[in-house]
Every structure is written in structure tokens, then in C-alpha cells.
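Bench notes, bay 3.
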Amino acid sequence: MSMTSAPFDFAVENYPLAPVSLYNVGGPADLALMPTNLDEVEAAYRWLSEQDVPRIVLGGGSNVLISDAGFRGIVLFTTELVEIRALGDDRFEVEGGAILDDMLQGTILKHNYAGAGGLTGIPGTVGGAIFMNAGTVNGSICELMESVKITTESGTEEIEIDSSMYSYRGQTFCPPSGLIVSGTFAFSRSDDDQRAIYDKYIARRKETQPQGHSCGSVFKNPEGHHSGQLIESCGLKGTRIGGACISDVHANFIVNDQGASSADIL
């Protein structure tokens, strides 16, 4: 495997990855690319396609476990793509690196749009949330979307979204190698106080979810069940390996509470 020198001023060698992961573990990436606009994203992808090394797209690292050995390849970050553009008629284009809670606070709650219940308390970026169709029992992010702009090695395209393209914590419009440049959201005004809904769910999460370094719930819920309840029924709450443990508060959380390694968590 080989890699030529990156011809970009947004390229950083030997980039530490632990600080960008909510688990706060992992070694460095050989190279990080941090484009700030669509032109830079497309240039980075053209260059990536010529490199014979592993590559991955990463947003806020909210649900990623990074190896202690680091990543022997190129990480293409979305975190510098942070603009939220008002398009009129309650429509907004939100770039993939924008923090999801910033969209909630600055757009949904500001205008009292419906949707706070499904997105409150979810960490990470808008692009990451779109990629996994993040949400709660009250709804998911793709339900609020009109279209998505994606860059792959074949270029950039905008895809109109309909409900057949997404499901529980998944979607079919963006491949694993794709980078979500932005999503266009079509919001609707709510008759309910979305700030009150937000505050209620934030308070509930503080009561029922552990603090500390974790990626949130680790396992998706199997149909008809809750993963946390299944893990707890096996008597695994509090189980520890090294610096990582299954939380005593919520069994679907693995917490780095004593300087865990990636191997401890895995």
C-alpha cells in the first residue's frame, strides 16, 4: 500500500483520533483531510481515489471505536462543513459537519419546528446522524429531510429522499464510502412548545443515562426487545474489563471510566 504526498493545506499528518471520539480512545491516523467547502471535498475525493491505502469518512466520532493502533490510512473529516443556510419557506440546508444540537437549538427550537422529540440528546454531527438515521422512539432525522447532497469517488449528487430510502438506524442513499455534504430539511411549525419537549428529554437522559466517555447505546434494539434490558437480564451490569465497564445505570452503555484502552472496550 502506498500514498503520495497530499497537495492540500487542509491535510494533517499523524493526526490524533482519541480526542475526536466520544470513547476518548485510539491511536492516530496517518493522514487527516479537513475540507471546508464542496470544492475541497471534491478535490479530496479525487485525490483519495488514487491512493492505495485504507480510507474512512468521520464526523464527530460519536459511535466509532478507534483502534489503539490508530488508522493506517486517510481519515476524511466533515467537521469543517458547518454552515446552516436558510432557504425560505421553513427549508434549511445544513452541512454535514454541523453539530446536531446546534441545528436543534438554532433552527428547530428557535422557530418552534416539530422534531425536537426525535433528536434531543443525540451527540455528533448532522451528517453522521443522517448516515445512520439517528433518532429516538419519537422520530428520526430522515423523516424531516427533503434531499441529501453526497460526494463519492464518482462526484457529487443531490438525492431526493422518500420514506422507502431509510429505516430504523439505517438508510440506502449513501454508501459506506460516501461523504454527506449537506441535507436539506423541510420543517413544519409546531403547536406544541418544542423547548419544553427538549428540556423534558434532556432531563430524562440525565436521570437514566450514565455520564463519562461512551458512544451512547452500543447495540440496536432487536425487534420487540430492548438491548439494555436483555444485557441486564444476563446479569452483566457493572461487568468490567480494564478501564471499561458495562454501566450500572444503563446496561446498553459501555463506559470508559478508568482510562480504558480500545481493546478493553472491544
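Next record in the batch:
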Amino acid sequence: MTSTATLFEYVAYPYEVAGRDSFSEGRLHLTEETLDRLDTLNETKRFLDIGRHALRPLNYVGVVKAGGITLQILPKLYRGDAYERHRTTIAGNLLTMLSCTERLSIRAMDLAGLDVENTDLFEVFMAFFAQNLSRLLNSTQKKAYTREERELRVVRERIDVRAYTNPARLHIIPCTFHEYTVDNILNRTLKYTCHLMARTARRFETVKTLRSIIALLDAVTLTPVTVAEVDTITFDRLNRRFEPFVRICRIFLSSSTLTLQASDVETFSLLIPMEKLFEEFIAAVLIDDPAYFFGRGVNVSAQGRIGHLVQKRSGGRLFSLIPDLLAEGPGGALVIDTKYKLLDEAENAYDVSQADAYQMFAYVVKIRAKAGMLLYPDTELKSSLDVSYEVKDEGKSRRIPLLIRSVRLSHALTTREGWEAFRDELAGVIQEMVDQAADYSPEEMCEGTMPALL
């Protein structure tokens, strides 16, 4: 029986070597074999700081299964020890953030039917996959052309002349042809993954749904599928709806050691860097409804290249400038960079990195932006920080506001009220930038500069 340990990023958990994997009262009991597997996983993606007596998750969240234990790593989202009391809200918020981005690539996620408190993320991911794939397959099953090489009694498409050499078997014709069938690599990938998941999942409803999918794909051959084979699948307008599920199949097949012959998953990992998830989540929310946050006529784009920082004498360019978010409208351009780090009002400049301030300066000067913002997650920031850059432009000075702001991720995002409260808070933060940008004209003379403490 697999034990589940819920850990939080940057919190140290003591562990001891034991004969069986378990987690109780904040202490991990791990076998030597499990520690070796965690060390191996850590070599490719360092998600843990493994000391002599304690284990501390770093900046990745998600789920790792090794040996007899599943580690689900959640973001803290709350300061102090409040995160322990809000475990269910945090797990639900993490899943909501994932559903808004391309990390899981499945938008329709039904959290209501899942007991997030008592179900580990490994089970949750499989449940989401099964629910959504079942709905899609019940409405459509994808046929595709597959290349076949067979000996036939009638000519079909092309004769393989090289194999047509036996005079005693001239009535048997080796042919190469394409067949429009459900037994293709896409469906074989789905069926194989569902078969492995069904033998791994512990939640009855998930197993039932996975088995129903396997039954729907009865005409598809159940055979092991490699990651290399998954990578050969091409998508077009006819099968594009299956692309998110194939992505998850690839993650599952590449991250686990389960096979048709194995009785259980030996290792599995689905880990997401929290700073990237925060960036992609904020971008997805803003891009989905730009008029609500910025006003009408504003176009919002994410991770778009706006140029380079320097140019070589030879003519080449170096150091691409790629802000997290760029909002362009009638009033000019606004730049936002997200930073996954808790601000500290007690620190100089709220502990904002000087490198981050310089990076934003390069962005706003390059595109003559009206304002910039560094956006952080936070829960207890009592006041905001406003500074400005002073730049020379055609012989005149102009001030570019730089807003240091935070938005809480601790709203209950799985509820309508919590989701709307989060959107309202984010809209308020964005509106402050829009208002400050409107207060400064490009030719405004000013004496202030960005404080040296940044």
C-alpha cells in the first residue's frame, strides 16, 4: 500500500531510514531503495534538497512517486504555518492554476467530485485525464491513415517489387498501402496509457472510467508504446482535440517505469516549476479577458520578443528582450514581469532584486512604455511600493512609473466567489498601473529618479 506525504515548498521535513516507506507527524520514514530513487530523480530535475537528516522541497510543485511513497508537493501560498490549515484550498488552487495554463492542457476540470483533502495529486491527475478523455471519446473516435505492408491476393496501392520474387507465389502480392482505421498510433497511445493507469489508480470511479475507455477502444491493439512513437504523432484540424491527452500520455509514459508486465508504478514524477506556473497563470487570466483588466482596445501578449539588448560590431544582436506580458493599446504600452517570491516590507525596497529592476528598465526603454510593473504573489503586504525611472528622450526627461505590486493566490479559486475575488484584486492592481501611466505624458519634465536602493 502506497503512503502519501503532503509536503510544502521550502519547508524542511526530517526523515530517517526505515524498513518501510511512510509519513507520520511530519516525519518521513524512507527505505534505502526509495532514497536512491529520489536521488536519481533529483539528478535530472533538482526538486529536493536532500540532507543527512532532512528533506526540503525546492521550487517545484506536483507529484513524485518513488517506491512505496507518493510525495505531493504544494505551494505554500500562506505565510507562517497557515498553509497547514488550508491544505485543501491550496491543492484546489494549484489544480485551478494548472487548468488555466498549458501545463495539463485540459481546461474542463471538475473539482467538485474529487476529495482533494484525501486524494493525492497522482490520483487527481489520472481522474482528470479519464473524465475528460471519456467525454471526448464518447462523442468521437479518431480514425487515421496507417501505413501497412501485407501480402494480398489483389493489388492495393503499391506493389513492393523487391519482395515479389518467388515464382511459386506469384498469386500472393506484397503491397504497401494506407488504411483508414481506428487502430492507429494515437489510439494505441491512449489505450496503453489508460491500461497502465487503470492498474495504478486507487480511486474506484477513476478505474471504472479508465476501463470504460479501454472498452470503447476495443478495436485498437493493446501494445506497449514508447515515447519515441508518441513523438511521431502529427496533429491537424481533424484530431487536434486529442492533442492535450496525448501530451499527458507522453508525460505519464516518460515519467514512469510501469510496463505491461509490472504490477505497480515504481517511479513517477510530474513536477512544475512554480515560478513558471505563476507566470503562465497570470498571463492566461489577463489574456482571456483583456478588456476587464486594461479597458477596451488593448491587446495583451505573453512572452513576445521585443528586440535585443545589445548589437555587435559585426551587426549581430545579443540578449533577447522577452517580457512576461505586454499590453498595447491607444494609451501606449505597458509591461509586466511576474516574480514568484514573497515580498518583505521590512527589507530594503521590499527585497526587490536589483537585477529585476534593471531588466524592467531595459524593457520599458526599448519600447518606450508608459509604465512597468513587477508582480509578486503575496498575502500580507500592507502597502505597495511606487518608484520611477527617469530617461532622456530627444533632449527631454520623462518619468516612467514602476509599480511593485502583489496579488494573493490564497483566494479559494475553485469557488465562484473566490475566483471573482481574485480577478477583482488583480484588476485593481492593473488599474493602478493604467492610472499612473496616464498621469505621465512622454514630454513631462521631472527631477526624480529611480531610488538608488533598487
